[in-house]
Amino acid sequence: MLPHADPDAGARPLVTTCEERGALRLAAIDRIADQRGLRAGLALADARARHPDLIALADDPAADRALMGRLADWTRRYTPLLAQDPPDALVLDMTGAAHLFGGEEALLADIRSRLRAMGFTPRLAIAGTPEAAAALTRAKRDKAGVDKADGPDPIIASGAEEAALRPLPLRALRVASDTCDALERLGLSRVEDILLRPRAPFAARFGADLIARIDAALGRMRSSIGAQIEAPAYLTERRFFEPILAAEDVARTLERLAEELCSMLTRHGEGATRLEYMLFRVDGAVRRISLQAGRPVRDPDRIMLLFREKLAGFHDALDIGHGFDLARLTAVTVARLDQASPRLDGRARGQALAQLIDTLAARLGEERVRIPVAGDAHLPEEAARLRRPYARPSARSSSSPWLAAPSHWLAAAAPDRPIRLFDQPEPIEALAGVPDGPPLRFRWRRVLHETAAYEGPERIAPPWWRGGRLTRDYFRVEDREGRRFWLFRHGLYARETQSPRWYLHGVFG
Question: 7-59: which CATH architecture?
Protein backbone atom coordinates (compact mmCIF):
# COMPACT_ATOMS: atom_id res chain seq x y z
CA MET A 1 0.00 0.00 0.00
CA LEU A 2 1.15 3.53 -0.72
CA PRO A 3 2.03 5.97 2.11
CA HIS A 4 -1.19 6.81 3.91
CA ALA A 5 -3.09 10.07 3.69
CA ASP A 6 -5.36 11.73 6.25
CA PRO A 7 -8.95 10.64 5.51
CA ASP A 8 -10.32 13.72 7.27
CA ALA A 9 -8.39 16.19 5.11
CA GLY A 10 -10.47 15.66 1.99
CA ALA A 11 -7.54 14.03 0.21
CA ARG A 12 -8.03 12.44 -3.19
CA PRO A 13 -7.35 8.71 -3.58
CA LEU A 14 -3.87 7.89 -4.86
CA VAL A 15 -2.93 4.76 -6.80
CA THR A 16 -0.13 3.45 -8.98
CA THR A 17 -0.80 1.57 -12.20
CA CYS A 18 0.94 -1.12 -14.21
CA GLU A 19 0.17 -2.70 -17.58
CA GLU A 20 -1.24 -6.21 -17.32
CA ARG A 21 -2.64 -8.18 -20.26
CA GLY A 22 -2.81 -5.05 -22.40
CA ALA A 23 -4.73 -2.97 -19.85
CA LEU A 24 -3.75 -0.55 -17.11
CA ARG A 25 -4.57 -1.92 -13.67
CA LEU A 26 -4.06 -0.70 -10.14
CA ALA A 27 -0.76 -1.92 -8.69
CA ALA A 28 -0.95 -0.25 -5.27
CA ILE A 29 -3.47 1.93 -3.46
CA ASP A 30 -3.41 4.28 -0.50
CA ARG A 31 -5.73 4.26 2.53
CA ILE A 32 -8.21 6.69 0.96
CA ALA A 33 -8.57 4.48 -2.10
CA ASP A 34 -9.05 1.47 0.17
CA GLN A 35 -11.83 3.23 2.07
CA ARG A 36 -13.55 4.06 -1.21
CA GLY A 37 -13.63 0.42 -2.22
CA LEU A 38 -10.78 0.30 -4.72
CA ARG A 39 -8.57 -2.78 -4.85
CA ALA A 40 -5.25 -3.71 -6.41
CA GLY A 41 -5.79 -5.43 -9.76
CA LEU A 42 -8.85 -3.35 -10.68
CA ALA A 43 -8.79 -1.84 -14.18
CA LEU A 44 -7.91 1.85 -14.14
CA ALA A 45 -10.87 2.69 -16.37
CA ASP A 46 -13.26 1.09 -13.86
CA ALA A 47 -11.58 2.91 -10.98
CA ARG A 48 -11.90 6.30 -12.73
CA ALA A 49 -15.54 5.61 -13.50
CA ARG A 50 -16.19 5.14 -9.80
CA HIS A 51 -13.99 8.02 -8.61
CA PRO A 52 -13.22 10.69 -11.22
CA ASP A 53 -10.96 12.55 -8.76
CA LEU A 54 -8.58 9.59 -8.66
CA ILE A 55 -4.84 10.39 -8.87
CA ALA A 56 -3.02 7.69 -10.88
CA LEU A 57 0.74 7.44 -11.21
CA ALA A 58 2.74 4.99 -13.27
CA ASP A 59 4.36 2.21 -11.26
CA ASP A 60 8.16 2.65 -11.08
CA PRO A 61 9.90 -0.56 -9.91
CA ALA A 62 13.36 1.05 -10.10
CA ALA A 63 12.26 3.86 -7.79
CA ASP A 64 10.71 1.29 -5.46
CA ARG A 65 14.00 -0.61 -5.26
CA ALA A 66 15.88 2.63 -4.58
CA LEU A 67 13.42 3.49 -1.82
CA MET A 68 13.85 0.06 -0.25
CA GLY A 69 17.62 0.58 -0.35
CA ARG A 70 17.26 3.87 1.53
CA LEU A 71 14.96 2.23 4.07
CA ALA A 72 17.51 -0.56 4.52
CA ASP A 73 20.12 2.07 5.35
CA TRP A 74 17.70 3.67 7.79
CA THR A 75 17.00 0.39 9.61
CA ARG A 76 20.73 0.03 10.35
CA ARG A 77 20.00 2.26 13.34
CA TYR A 78 18.59 -0.90 14.92
CA THR A 79 20.95 -3.62 13.69
CA PRO A 80 23.67 -4.07 11.07
CA LEU A 81 22.32 -7.55 10.24
CA LEU A 82 19.53 -6.95 7.76
CA ALA A 83 18.43 -8.08 4.33
CA GLN A 84 15.90 -7.02 1.75
CA ASP A 85 12.98 -9.33 1.04
CA PRO A 86 11.80 -8.13 -2.37
CA PRO A 87 9.66 -6.48 -3.39
CA ASP A 88 8.49 -4.62 -0.29
CA ALA A 89 9.92 -6.10 2.91
CA LEU A 90 12.98 -5.91 5.14
CA VAL A 91 14.17 -8.61 7.52
CA LEU A 92 16.16 -7.56 10.60
CA ASP A 93 18.11 -9.91 12.85
CA MET A 94 17.52 -8.47 16.35
CA THR A 95 18.91 -11.43 18.28
CA GLY A 96 20.17 -10.18 21.64
CA ALA A 97 19.58 -6.52 20.74
CA ALA A 98 15.91 -5.85 21.57
CA HIS A 99 16.71 -5.00 25.18
CA LEU A 100 18.75 -2.02 23.98
CA PHE A 101 15.49 -0.43 22.89
CA GLY A 102 13.44 -1.30 25.97
CA GLY A 103 12.20 -4.71 24.87
CA GLU A 104 10.46 -6.11 21.83
CA GLU A 105 7.21 -4.17 22.27
CA ALA A 106 9.07 -0.89 22.70
CA LEU A 107 11.22 -1.74 19.68
CA LEU A 108 8.18 -2.30 17.44
CA ALA A 109 6.53 0.86 18.79
CA ASP A 110 9.62 2.90 17.97
CA ILE A 111 9.88 1.51 14.43
CA ARG A 112 6.17 2.02 13.84
CA SER A 113 6.12 5.62 15.07
CA ARG A 114 9.16 6.60 13.04
CA LEU A 115 7.88 5.00 9.83
CA ARG A 116 4.45 6.61 10.25
CA ALA A 117 6.12 9.98 10.71
CA MET A 118 7.88 9.37 7.38
CA GLY A 119 4.52 8.65 5.69
CA PHE A 120 4.50 4.84 5.65
CA THR A 121 2.00 2.31 6.94
CA PRO A 122 4.22 -0.50 8.25
CA ARG A 123 3.31 -4.09 9.01
CA LEU A 124 5.64 -5.45 11.70
CA ALA A 125 6.17 -8.79 13.41
CA ILE A 126 8.78 -10.53 15.56
CA ALA A 127 9.31 -14.29 15.46
CA GLY A 128 11.99 -16.88 16.02
CA THR A 129 12.56 -17.44 12.28
CA PRO A 130 12.70 -14.86 9.49
CA GLU A 131 10.19 -16.85 7.42
CA ALA A 132 7.65 -16.84 10.26
CA ALA A 133 8.02 -13.10 10.85
CA ALA A 134 7.59 -12.39 7.14
CA ALA A 135 4.53 -14.64 6.95
CA LEU A 136 2.89 -12.86 9.89
CA THR A 137 3.29 -9.49 8.16
CA ARG A 138 1.97 -10.80 4.85
CA ALA A 139 -1.04 -12.30 6.60
CA LYS A 140 -2.17 -8.76 7.43
CA ARG A 141 -3.02 -8.33 3.76
CA ASP A 142 -5.97 -9.90 1.99
CA LYS A 143 -5.81 -11.71 -1.34
CA ALA A 144 -6.20 -8.41 -3.23
CA GLY A 145 -3.14 -7.00 -1.53
CA VAL A 146 -4.95 -4.53 0.74
CA ASP A 147 -4.09 -4.03 4.39
CA LYS A 148 -6.62 -5.47 6.78
CA ALA A 149 -7.79 -3.65 9.88
CA ASP A 150 -5.03 -2.43 12.08
CA GLY A 151 -4.20 -4.61 15.05
CA PRO A 152 -1.35 -5.29 17.44
CA ASP A 153 1.92 -6.31 15.87
CA PRO A 154 2.46 -10.01 16.65
CA ILE A 155 5.42 -11.03 18.83
CA ILE A 156 5.97 -14.79 18.72
CA ALA A 157 8.43 -16.39 21.10
CA SER A 158 11.01 -18.75 19.67
CA GLY A 159 9.52 -22.25 19.55
CA ALA A 160 5.92 -21.04 19.39
CA GLU A 161 5.84 -20.49 15.65
CA GLU A 162 3.61 -23.48 14.86
CA ALA A 163 0.65 -22.22 16.90
CA ALA A 164 0.94 -18.77 15.33
CA LEU A 165 1.29 -20.04 11.76
CA ARG A 166 -1.45 -22.68 11.79
CA PRO A 167 -4.35 -20.32 10.92
CA LEU A 168 -2.37 -18.38 8.29
CA PRO A 169 -2.97 -18.87 4.55
CA LEU A 170 -0.32 -20.77 2.63
CA ARG A 171 0.16 -17.71 0.42
CA ALA A 172 1.69 -15.93 3.42
CA LEU A 173 4.63 -18.37 3.16
CA ARG A 174 5.08 -17.41 -0.50
CA VAL A 175 4.24 -20.87 -1.72
CA ALA A 176 4.03 -20.93 -5.52
CA SER A 177 0.77 -19.45 -6.78
CA ASP A 178 -0.16 -22.46 -8.92
CA THR A 179 0.42 -24.75 -5.93
CA CYS A 180 -1.85 -22.59 -3.76
CA ASP A 181 -4.56 -22.57 -6.45
CA ALA A 182 -4.43 -26.36 -6.71
CA LEU A 183 -4.59 -26.80 -2.93
CA GLU A 184 -7.46 -24.33 -2.59
CA ARG A 185 -9.45 -26.34 -5.11
CA LEU A 186 -8.97 -29.28 -2.74
CA GLY A 187 -10.15 -27.18 0.18
CA LEU A 188 -6.64 -26.82 1.64
CA SER A 189 -5.75 -23.14 2.02
CA ARG A 190 -4.20 -22.81 5.49
CA VAL A 191 -0.92 -23.96 6.98
CA GLU A 192 -2.67 -26.28 9.44
CA ASP A 193 -4.36 -28.08 6.55
CA ILE A 194 -0.91 -29.34 5.58
CA LEU A 195 0.39 -29.93 9.10
CA LEU A 196 -2.56 -32.17 9.99
CA ARG A 197 -1.94 -34.51 7.08
CA PRO A 198 0.94 -36.81 6.04
CA ARG A 199 3.78 -34.94 4.40
CA ALA A 200 4.86 -37.50 1.79
CA PRO A 201 1.81 -37.17 -0.52
CA PHE A 202 2.16 -33.37 -0.62
CA ALA A 203 5.87 -33.60 -1.43
CA ALA A 204 5.21 -36.16 -4.16
CA ARG A 205 2.31 -34.17 -5.65
CA PHE A 206 3.54 -30.56 -5.33
CA GLY A 207 7.29 -30.86 -4.90
CA ALA A 208 9.66 -30.35 -1.99
CA ASP A 209 9.34 -26.54 -1.95
CA LEU A 210 5.99 -26.61 -0.17
CA ILE A 211 7.29 -28.69 2.74
CA ALA A 212 10.61 -26.82 2.84
CA ARG A 213 8.90 -23.44 3.26
CA ILE A 214 6.79 -24.74 6.12
CA ASP A 215 9.77 -26.37 7.84
CA ALA A 216 11.84 -23.18 7.50
CA ALA A 217 9.08 -21.05 9.03
CA LEU A 218 8.68 -23.51 11.93
CA GLY A 219 12.42 -23.62 12.60
CA ARG A 220 12.74 -27.28 11.68
CA MET A 221 15.54 -26.46 9.26
CA ARG A 222 18.28 -23.87 9.57
CA SER A 223 17.94 -20.71 7.55
CA SER A 224 19.49 -17.28 7.50
CA ILE A 225 18.38 -13.87 6.32
CA GLY A 226 21.34 -13.56 3.95
CA ALA A 227 22.42 -10.26 5.45
CA GLN A 228 23.52 -7.79 2.80
CA ILE A 229 25.95 -6.09 5.20
CA GLU A 230 28.28 -7.93 7.54
CA ALA A 231 28.44 -6.77 11.14
CA PRO A 232 31.41 -4.44 11.68
CA ALA A 233 34.32 -5.58 13.81
CA TYR A 234 33.91 -2.69 16.28
CA LEU A 235 31.10 -0.19 16.74
CA THR A 236 30.49 2.92 18.85
CA GLU A 237 27.44 5.14 18.71
CA ARG A 238 25.62 8.05 20.33
CA ARG A 239 21.84 8.44 20.50
CA PHE A 240 20.49 11.90 21.19
CA PHE A 241 17.25 12.73 22.98
CA GLU A 242 17.23 16.02 21.09
CA PRO A 243 18.67 16.01 17.55
CA ILE A 244 21.97 17.81 17.04
CA LEU A 245 21.81 20.68 14.56
CA ALA A 246 25.31 22.18 14.48
CA ALA A 247 28.30 20.98 12.45
CA GLU A 248 30.46 21.54 15.53
CA ASP A 249 28.35 19.02 17.46
CA VAL A 250 28.76 16.51 14.64
CA ALA A 251 32.56 16.91 14.77
CA ARG A 252 32.65 16.79 18.57
CA THR A 253 30.59 13.59 18.57
CA LEU A 254 32.94 12.04 16.02
CA GLU A 255 35.93 12.91 18.20
CA ARG A 256 34.42 11.19 21.24
CA LEU A 257 33.42 8.14 19.23
CA ALA A 258 36.94 7.94 17.78
CA GLU A 259 38.42 7.91 21.29
CA GLU A 260 36.11 5.07 22.35
CA LEU A 261 36.77 3.09 19.19
CA CYS A 262 40.55 3.45 19.54
CA SER A 263 40.35 2.27 23.16
CA MET A 264 38.65 -0.93 22.01
CA LEU A 265 41.16 -1.42 19.22
CA THR A 266 44.07 -0.91 21.62
CA ARG A 267 42.72 -3.50 24.06
CA HIS A 268 42.63 -6.07 21.28
CA GLY A 269 45.92 -5.08 19.64
CA GLU A 270 44.27 -4.16 16.33
CA GLY A 271 43.90 -1.16 14.07
CA ALA A 272 41.17 -0.11 11.66
CA THR A 273 41.82 -0.30 7.93
CA ARG A 274 38.35 0.89 6.89
CA LEU A 275 36.16 3.27 8.91
CA GLU A 276 32.60 4.44 8.45
CA TYR A 277 30.83 7.35 10.12
CA MET A 278 27.03 7.16 9.79
CA LEU A 279 24.67 9.98 10.65
CA PHE A 280 20.94 9.20 10.92
CA ARG A 281 18.66 12.15 10.31
CA VAL A 282 15.29 12.41 12.05
CA ASP A 283 13.43 12.37 8.72
CA GLY A 284 14.94 8.99 7.79
CA ALA A 285 17.83 10.15 5.60
CA VAL A 286 21.21 8.55 6.29
CA ARG A 287 24.59 10.13 5.58
CA ARG A 288 27.47 7.65 5.30
CA ILE A 289 31.10 8.79 5.25
CA SER A 290 33.66 6.04 4.58
CA LEU A 291 37.42 6.14 4.35
CA GLN A 292 40.27 3.69 3.89
CA ALA A 293 43.65 3.54 5.62
CA GLY A 294 46.71 2.00 4.03
CA ARG A 295 48.00 0.86 7.41
CA PRO A 296 45.98 -0.08 10.50
CA VAL A 297 45.20 3.06 12.53
CA ARG A 298 43.99 3.51 16.10
CA ASP A 299 45.06 7.08 16.83
CA PRO A 300 42.01 9.35 17.44
CA ASP A 301 43.83 12.43 16.15
CA ARG A 302 44.77 10.59 12.96
CA ILE A 303 41.18 9.41 12.46
CA MET A 304 39.86 12.95 12.98
CA LEU A 305 42.37 14.32 10.46
CA LEU A 306 41.29 11.80 7.82
CA PHE A 307 37.60 12.54 8.34
CA ARG A 308 38.22 16.29 8.19
CA GLU A 309 40.01 15.81 4.87
CA LYS A 310 37.15 13.63 3.66
CA LEU A 311 34.55 16.24 4.58
CA ALA A 312 36.63 19.01 3.02
CA GLY A 313 36.58 17.13 -0.28
CA PHE A 314 32.77 16.96 -0.43
CA HIS A 315 31.24 19.16 -3.10
CA ASP A 316 27.99 19.41 -1.13
CA ALA A 317 27.85 20.57 2.46
CA LEU A 318 26.80 18.17 5.20
CA ASP A 319 23.02 18.43 4.99
CA ILE A 320 21.93 18.43 8.63
CA GLY A 321 18.27 19.18 7.85
CA HIS A 322 16.17 18.84 10.99
CA GLY A 323 19.08 17.27 12.85
CA PHE A 324 20.72 13.92 13.52
CA ASP A 325 19.44 11.76 16.37
CA LEU A 326 22.00 8.96 15.99
CA ALA A 327 25.71 8.98 15.15
CA ARG A 328 27.69 5.78 14.68
CA LEU A 329 31.38 5.15 14.05
CA THR A 330 32.40 1.64 13.00
CA ALA A 331 35.63 -0.12 12.18
CA VAL A 332 34.39 -2.10 9.20
CA THR A 333 37.65 -4.00 8.70
CA VAL A 334 40.60 -4.33 11.05
CA ALA A 335 44.08 -5.82 11.02
CA ARG A 336 46.66 -6.78 13.58
CA LEU A 337 48.70 -3.75 14.64
CA ASP A 338 52.02 -4.90 16.01
CA GLN A 339 54.35 -2.29 17.43
CA ALA A 340 57.19 -1.93 14.92
CA SER A 341 60.66 -0.87 15.97
CA PRO A 342 60.82 2.91 15.50
CA ARG A 343 63.61 4.79 13.78
CA LEU A 344 65.87 7.26 15.59
CA ASP A 345 63.31 10.05 14.99
CA GLY A 346 60.61 8.00 16.74
CA ARG A 347 58.58 7.18 13.65
CA ALA A 348 57.86 3.79 12.18
CA ARG A 349 59.42 3.02 8.82
CA GLY A 350 57.13 4.04 5.95
CA GLN A 351 54.65 5.76 8.26
CA ALA A 352 54.96 9.22 6.66
CA LEU A 353 54.29 7.88 3.17
CA ALA A 354 51.29 5.86 4.36
CA GLN A 355 49.85 8.92 6.08
CA LEU A 356 50.35 11.03 2.96
CA ILE A 357 48.55 8.49 0.81
CA ASP A 358 45.67 8.23 3.30
CA THR A 359 45.32 12.01 3.47
CA LEU A 360 45.29 12.43 -0.31
CA ALA A 361 42.81 9.58 -0.74
CA ALA A 362 40.51 11.09 1.89
CA ARG A 363 40.61 14.54 0.33
CA LEU A 364 40.61 13.68 -3.39
CA GLY A 365 38.95 10.25 -3.34
CA GLU A 366 40.56 6.83 -3.69
CA GLU A 367 39.82 6.71 -7.41
CA ARG A 368 42.02 9.80 -8.02
CA VAL A 369 45.15 8.62 -6.20
CA ARG A 370 47.74 6.28 -7.68
CA ILE A 371 51.05 4.97 -6.37
CA PRO A 372 53.93 3.59 -8.47
CA VAL A 373 55.01 -0.02 -8.20
CA ALA A 374 58.03 -1.60 -9.89
CA GLY A 375 57.47 -4.21 -12.56
CA ASP A 376 59.49 -7.27 -13.51
CA ALA A 377 60.41 -6.01 -16.99
CA HIS A 378 63.27 -3.86 -18.30
CA LEU A 379 61.38 -2.09 -21.08
CA PRO A 380 60.72 1.45 -19.76
CA GLU A 381 56.95 1.40 -20.34
CA GLU A 382 56.66 -1.90 -18.45
CA ALA A 383 59.17 -1.24 -15.66
CA ALA A 384 56.62 0.56 -13.49
CA ARG A 385 52.85 0.77 -13.21
CA LEU A 386 50.37 2.88 -11.29
CA ARG A 387 47.80 1.24 -9.07
CA ARG A 388 45.13 2.30 -6.62
CA PRO A 389 46.51 2.96 -3.14
CA TYR A 390 44.58 0.16 -1.39
CA ALA A 391 44.57 -2.43 -4.17
CA ARG A 392 46.85 -5.42 -4.16
CA PRO A 393 50.11 -4.59 -5.95
CA SER A 394 50.30 -5.84 -9.51
CA ALA A 395 52.93 -4.95 -12.06
CA ARG A 396 50.39 -5.51 -14.83
CA SER A 397 47.60 -3.27 -13.49
CA SER A 398 47.44 0.32 -14.65
CA SER A 399 44.63 2.59 -15.72
CA SER A 400 46.57 5.83 -16.02
CA PRO A 401 47.93 7.37 -19.25
CA TRP A 402 51.17 8.21 -17.41
CA LEU A 403 53.68 5.74 -16.08
CA ALA A 404 55.74 6.45 -13.00
CA ALA A 405 59.38 5.60 -12.48
CA PRO A 406 60.53 3.08 -9.86
CA SER A 407 61.78 4.43 -6.55
CA HIS A 408 65.48 3.93 -7.40
CA TRP A 409 65.05 6.39 -10.28
CA LEU A 410 63.53 8.97 -7.95
CA ALA A 411 66.42 8.69 -5.51
CA ALA A 412 69.02 10.10 -7.91
CA ALA A 413 69.66 13.85 -7.83
CA ALA A 414 69.79 13.98 -11.64
CA PRO A 415 67.76 11.02 -12.94
CA ASP A 416 68.97 9.17 -16.01
CA ARG A 417 65.38 8.77 -17.12
CA PRO A 418 62.35 11.06 -16.88
CA ILE A 419 60.16 10.58 -13.84
CA ARG A 420 57.12 10.45 -16.10
CA LEU A 421 56.95 8.76 -19.47
CA PHE A 422 54.44 8.97 -22.26
CA ASP A 423 52.01 6.10 -22.30
CA GLN A 424 52.93 5.55 -25.96
CA PRO A 425 56.25 6.83 -27.45
CA GLU A 426 55.54 9.62 -29.94
CA PRO A 427 57.16 9.46 -33.41
CA ILE A 428 59.55 12.27 -34.37
CA GLU A 429 61.55 13.27 -37.44
CA ALA A 430 65.30 13.14 -36.66
CA LEU A 431 68.49 13.79 -38.59
CA ALA A 432 71.72 12.05 -37.42
CA GLY A 433 75.29 12.66 -38.58
CA VAL A 434 75.95 8.90 -38.91
CA PRO A 435 73.44 6.01 -38.91
CA ASP A 436 74.33 4.94 -35.34
CA GLY A 437 74.89 8.45 -33.98
CA PRO A 438 72.74 10.84 -31.95
CA PRO A 439 70.26 13.20 -33.63
CA LEU A 440 71.64 16.58 -34.72
CA ARG A 441 68.15 17.98 -34.86
CA PHE A 442 64.60 16.59 -34.58
CA ARG A 443 61.05 17.78 -35.10
CA TRP A 444 58.42 16.98 -32.47
CA ARG A 445 54.86 18.25 -32.64
CA ARG A 446 55.78 20.52 -35.56
CA VAL A 447 58.56 22.23 -33.57
CA LEU A 448 62.20 21.91 -34.67
CA HIS A 449 64.80 21.33 -31.93
CA GLU A 450 68.57 21.75 -32.43
CA THR A 451 70.74 19.41 -30.34
CA ALA A 452 73.16 21.25 -28.03
CA ALA A 453 74.32 18.27 -25.92
CA TYR A 454 73.54 14.61 -25.57
CA GLU A 455 74.33 11.47 -23.55
CA GLY A 456 74.04 7.91 -24.71
CA PRO A 457 73.21 5.63 -26.17
CA GLU A 458 71.61 3.34 -23.57
CA ARG A 459 70.81 0.17 -25.42
CA ILE A 460 67.76 -1.84 -24.41
CA ALA A 461 67.24 -5.15 -26.17
CA PRO A 462 63.71 -6.52 -26.63
CA PRO A 463 62.55 -9.61 -24.70
CA TRP A 464 63.74 -12.56 -26.76
CA TRP A 465 60.68 -14.67 -25.95
CA ARG A 466 58.29 -12.22 -27.61
CA GLY A 467 60.04 -12.07 -30.96
CA GLY A 468 59.62 -9.58 -33.77
CA ARG A 469 60.73 -6.57 -31.73
CA LEU A 470 63.62 -4.20 -32.38
CA THR A 471 66.44 -2.94 -30.19
CA ARG A 472 66.23 0.57 -28.79
CA ASP A 473 69.09 3.05 -28.41
CA TYR A 474 68.05 5.77 -25.93
CA PHE A 475 69.62 9.26 -25.85
CA ARG A 476 69.31 12.07 -23.33
CA VAL A 477 69.24 15.19 -25.47
CA GLU A 478 69.29 18.89 -24.55
CA ASP A 479 68.32 21.49 -27.15
CA ARG A 480 69.64 25.06 -27.49
CA GLU A 481 66.81 26.42 -25.28
CA GLY A 482 67.82 24.11 -22.41
CA ARG A 483 64.92 21.68 -22.74
CA ARG A 484 65.81 18.05 -22.15
CA PHE A 485 64.27 15.03 -23.86
CA TRP A 486 64.52 11.25 -23.72
CA LEU A 487 64.30 9.75 -27.18
CA PHE A 488 65.37 6.55 -28.89
CA ARG A 489 66.22 5.08 -32.25
CA HIS A 490 64.12 2.00 -32.94
CA GLY A 491 66.14 -0.74 -34.60
CA LEU A 492 69.86 -1.38 -35.27
CA TYR A 493 70.95 -0.02 -38.63
CA ALA A 494 71.84 -2.73 -41.21
CA ARG A 495 71.27 -5.53 -38.71
CA GLU A 496 67.59 -5.26 -37.78
CA THR A 497 66.38 -2.65 -40.26
CA GLN A 498 67.61 -0.42 -43.08
CA SER A 499 65.61 2.61 -41.97
CA PRO A 500 65.43 3.00 -38.16
CA ARG A 501 62.70 5.27 -36.84
CA TRP A 502 62.93 7.75 -33.98
CA TYR A 503 60.58 8.21 -31.03
CA LEU A 504 60.29 10.57 -28.07
CA HIS A 505 59.46 8.67 -24.88
CA GLY A 506 59.55 11.35 -22.20
CA VAL A 507 60.71 14.80 -21.13
CA PHE A 508 62.78 15.90 -18.15
CA GLY A 509 61.54 18.51 -15.72
Answer: 3-Layer(aba) Sandwich (3.40)
